[in-house]
Amino acid sequence: MIVGGVLAELAVFAIVFPVLHFFGQQAFLISILVASFVMPFVFAIWVARRIEAHFVLHGLLVGAVAALMYLVIAWGQPEPLLYKIAHGLKLVGGLLGGVWAGRRA
Known about the structure:
The chain is mainly α and 105 residues long. It is 85% helix and 0% strand. It contains four helices and no strands. Helix 1 (2-23) packs across helix 3 and helix 3 (55-73) packs antiparallel against helix 4. The longest helix is centred in the middle third of the chain and has 24 residues, at 25-48. It is globular and about 40 Å long. The two termini are 17 Å apart. The relative contact order is 0.21.
């Protein structure tokens, strides 16, 4: 789940910065929110392929690792409200990815 969370956060970076470059600031801000939900969702499902129980917990932990990774990278920097919302979306995305994986198992 640690690898899944790290990969989810790296995927968020890999998506949002090209969006900023090619489409501008407004699209960048929207992509932060979308990617912060979708990437932990996807990687929670990926992590769940290797487990047999506690899917929701593992999904939530994927989102938590993704959020904590950003907080470590941006240590001491002020965070806009949008980023705080994005961290919440990472938790929700990971949790729902765990729910999805649990229903499929």
